[in-house]
Design brief:
The complex is a heterodimer of chains A (about 350) and B (about 260). Chain A has about 350 residues and is an all-alpha fold. Chain A contains 13 helices and 2 strands. The chains are: A mainly alpha (about 350), B alpha/beta (about 260).
Chain lengths: ~350, ~260
């Protein structure tokens, strides 16, 4: 990574530096509705983008900030709840029915404040203690939403929470929802890439590598870590709002401990060194979750065993490649390039 | 080319006029039952260049850590440019013009030379939280390049720090300390492990610093210390043992006994 770009490449436009594989991927994703069925677009891809965004917020904190936070799913759920509470839902007694242009910003701001407060508590801890304190708060959030009926409507939560019909489009239809989630995921992804090389992101990486030195350079390390939580919370919040729209409902289980752990698994399986990792992890997770019950049933096993599959996959990844599938891919590529003759490019 | 932004530094210097750069009063730092430094009282004038000598474990690095705020002292007060900073966090002291280098290089190994220096410049300027990437002609980027030039690392500008030689890493440490408008720099054994050529380069960098920048340098090598410092503090077992001009210290009977008897490097 280089904030000060090497002098030689500074003349080329950034658009020229996007590798061809990215253009291919973009084209592939944009044209997917032409051949994929509704179930795949809505359930598989939509869910992948949403979980990818929430895991991306963890990747930002863990990969650039060195802080493994388990609160990101709760932040997402907080945003989902706020959209249900400030917007419209089946629970007319609680929901206030504010218009979308008011309830969405409010939801994101409240979720960001929540994430920032948790961050302020968590940044004074390191490593395993960060995981423990954020997990404890996530558990507290789960039990609180389950027991509180005046705001969170307890056990049953909120149903009939749907996106607004903007521009005459029903955004919960598979194709519009696919493009909506794809667009949000792309924006969040681009934002993370951009910020990682802006002063804020570079500073965060400095804090990750060497907090003591950063303080000796004039940086307020604590403030930077907390600000990272704020930024990550906004990304998680966007994912959370899309998630409640996709399910049309939200309940305490949305941010239950299993869901909280799933986000960690997704980020680790995909790889937390680069922002694309969480999306790869999310795709693997969603595919396994969606299709493995059928496969298991075909072998005469209970569909519930998919969790075992995911668990084994997680174990294998952590064991063989600490930087996830991304790490496996990169190692494969370096081995490939090493096997080639550096001059002629021919395979040896 | 000047090493630092002289106008701002001179302006700020004016505001503290006569002042001392650093005043320590009875500073003590305990590690458990061990007093790493004990009852240290020390004054360094603005612009003064001081060498600190003393055998390993004398407490020199601990003294630096207390001044910069890496550690809070167990007792005593620290005044920086006339202001009591005893309880200030490190970054507040840095923003007041204090800088330091580390005995064991503390650099960002995953980043390039340019990014390291850029971070140092950013740390003492506004926009630390900026979400906007710097533009090609960003003043801070230009400033970073000047600093890289000043420590003779321009050919390695885009090299990852982990690929630099030991001597180059020591030079980069110095570049980080020169960012912004330093007024007092603490150099922790910058010459340790350097070849004679690299030492000569270091001496020329130090002697080339503008006059208003004072520094304290920990240095075992008397020859280097004599060429870069106008006053010397000798430390022993966590206390100040002797203070004086380089000549006084060099010719002091007690110092000679201690130095030779202690078997310093
Ligand atoms: N972080 C620390 N924890 C415990 N003891 C320390 C620490 N830092 C230094 N010391 C002790 O304090 C004494 C002074 O060390 P130091 O300041 O590094 O000496 P010098 O730099 O003069 O060689 C030594 O006995 C050392 O072991
Ligand atoms: Mg030392």
């Amino acid at each position: 990574m280089a904030l000060a770009e090497p002098k030689t490449t500074s003349q080329t436009l950034w658009i020229e530096r996007v590798p061809p594989i990215w253009w291919a991927l973009m084209l592939f994703l944009l044209t997917m509705p032409a051949w994929a069925n509704d179930f795949f677009l809505f359930q598989v891809m939509g869910w992948t983008f949403i979980l990818g965004m929430i895991a991306l917020s963890l990747m930002f904190l863990a990969g650039y900030g060195g802080m493994v936070s388990l609160i990101q799913m709760s932040v997402a759920a907080m945003a989902g709840y706020m959209v249900a509470i400030f917007g419209a839902s089946g629970m007319g007694d609680i929901s206030m029915g504010l218009p979308w242009w008011l309830n969405i910003p409010i939801a994101i701001i409240i979720a960001a404040i929540f994430g920032t407060l948790v961050g302020a508590l968590a940044v004074r801890t390191e490593g395993i203690y960060t995981i423990m304190i954020t997990l404890a708060i996530a558990a507290a959030f789960f039990y609180f939403t389950r027991q509180n009926y005046t705001i969170f409507n307890g056990y049953s939560g909120f149903n009939l929470v749907v996106p607004p019909s903007l521009f005459g489009v029903d955004w919960r239809q598979p194709m519009p929802f696919y493009y909506l989630t794809l667009g949000c995921a792309a924006i969040c992804y681009a934002a993370v890439i951009y910020v990682s090389r802006a002063p804020f992101g570079l500073t965060l990486q400095g804090v990750r590598d060497n907090p003591r030195r950063m303080a000796a350079l004039g940086f307020n390390v604590t403030a930077h870590r907390i600000a990272a939580y704020t930024f990550a919370s906004v990304i998680a919040a966007i994912g959370g709002i899309l998630l409640v729209w996709q399910n049309a409902q939200i309940a305490p289980g949305t941010a239950g401990i299993p869901a909280v752990i799933d986000i960690l698994v997704i980020a680790v399986v995909g790889g937390i060194t680069r922002p694309i990792g969480p999306f790869i992890g999310a795709l693997i997770y969603v595919l396994l979750r969606t299709f493995s019950p059928d496969v298991l049933l075909a072998f005469g096993l209970s569909g519930e065993r998919f969790k075992l599959l995911i668990g084994l996959g997680f174990l294998a990844i952590v064991f063989f490649s600490p930087d996830g599938v991304l790490g496996l891919w990169e190692r494969w590529r370096t081995r490939r390039s090493r096997e080639r003759d550096p001059l002629t490019g021919e395979q040896k | 080319m000047t090493l630092v932004n002289t106008t701002t530094a001179a302006d700020r210097l004016g505001s503290v006029s006569s002042g001392n750069a650093l005043e320590l009063r009875s500073v003590t730092k305990m590690f458990g039952a061990l007093a790493a430094i004990r009852d240290i009282t020390l004054t360094v004038r603005s612009g003064e260049r001081r060498a600190v000598l003393g055998s390993n474990g004398a407490g020199k690095t601990t003294l630096f850590n207390c001044v910069t705020g890496d550690f809070l002292p167990t007792g005593g007060t620290i005044r920086l440019f006339g202001e009591d900073v005893t309880r200030f966090p490190a970054y507040e002291r840095i923003r007041r013009g204090l800088r330091r280098t580390y005995q064991i290089s503390l650099l960002f190994n995953g980043l390039t030379v340019a990014d390291n220096v850029y971070l140092a410049c950013r740390g003492v300027s506004r926009g630390r939280f900026s979400f906007i990437r710097p533009r090609e002609n960003d003043a801070l980027l230009t400033r970073s390049d000047e600093l890289i030039e000043a420590v003779h690392l321009t050919p390695w500008r885009d090299t990852d720090v982990s690929n630099l030689s030991y001597g180059q890493q020591r030079q980069l440490e110095i570049a980080l300390a020169l960012a912004g408008a330093p007024r007092l720099i603490l150099f922790d054994e910058p010459a340790a492990g350097l070849s004679p050529t690299e030492r000569a380069e270091l001496v020329s960098i130090l002697n080339g610093l503008p006059g208003h920048i004072g520094y304290i340098i920990i240095e075992h090598d008397m020859d280097v210390a004599l060429r870069v410092a106008e006053s010397v503090t000798m430390m022993h077992n966590g206390t100040v043992f002797k203070e004086g001009t380089p000549e006084e210290i060099e010719n002091d009977q007690e110092v000679q006994e201690l130095y030779l008897g202690d078997g310093h490097e």
